[in-house]
Specification:
CATH architecture: 3-Layer(aba) Sandwich
Bound molecules: S-adenosylmethionine
CATH class: Alpha Beta
Order of helices and strands: HHEHEHEHEHHEHEHEEE
Number of domains: 1
Shape: globular
Strand content: 25-35%
Largest sheet: 9 strands, mixed
Amino acid sequence: MSSASDWHWHARAFLARRRWAATRQRLEDWLLGLPAGAAWPHELVLLGGSAGWMMSSRFLARFERVLLVDIDPWAGRLFRFNHGAALARHGVRLDVWQADAHALLEQALAEHPAACVLFDNFLGQDSIYTRDLQATERRLRAVRERVRGRLWGSVHDRLSGPGTTGWTAAACWQAGSISARAGEPLPPSALASVQASGEWIDHGTEPILPPGTPTRLIPWPIVAGRWHWLEAGWVDARGSV
Ligand SMILES: C[S@@+](CC[C@H](N)C(=O)[O-])C[C@H]1O[C@@H](n2cnc3c(N)ncnc32)[C@H](O)[C@@H]1O
């Protein structure tokens, strides 16, 4: 697995902060909304969190310790650039492992036995790294078993493709997020709301969340004329082992 820093991604994210504001807000709403009756653990294992361009400082402030695991050697420094002040203000300790989250997941869990685990929008790009759709499918299907007994969540690409180029802040707010359930097909209104056209890619992420998990579907205008529909869901499996 390559560990080169993805400067193209960081530059794009930095320049797109206004355009991505609506998506970031919807992600924050989801991050802060736990399954009913659940209580927050004191620690967070944040996998593939990059520089936290889409992360909510308010969410991070709920924890005493955060472990960021990302293969990108610049993720930790840029994460501190984006969230360091908020973490310091709230006394949150940040540790960073520059590592493959798949390889070190069990170690991270063992060192943080009660932590909440968040797969932060990297599982939908897994086949770019494996270059093997079947290997990726096996890996994604195994996720729930590997985090059994935890409060865990995932946000990941479901579908992506061409759509409206009207990526002004107003247009982004208009394409609303949708309540759904894991395992259900995307409602036609989702694609209509971003004026989807041409060929859309299925990221094969359907097996990640247990069927029926309540989810938020969130539109993300990643670049002008190209949209992702993100799926975000929490699973509270504490007490199930
Ligand atoms: C789309 S970005 C995530 C964006 C992030 N949620 C944010 O708010 O900026 C995907 C990230 O996953 C990381 N990544 C991909 N595969 C990984 C793996 N196997 N282990 C750890 N990090 C990985 C990449 O380095 C990249 O930083």
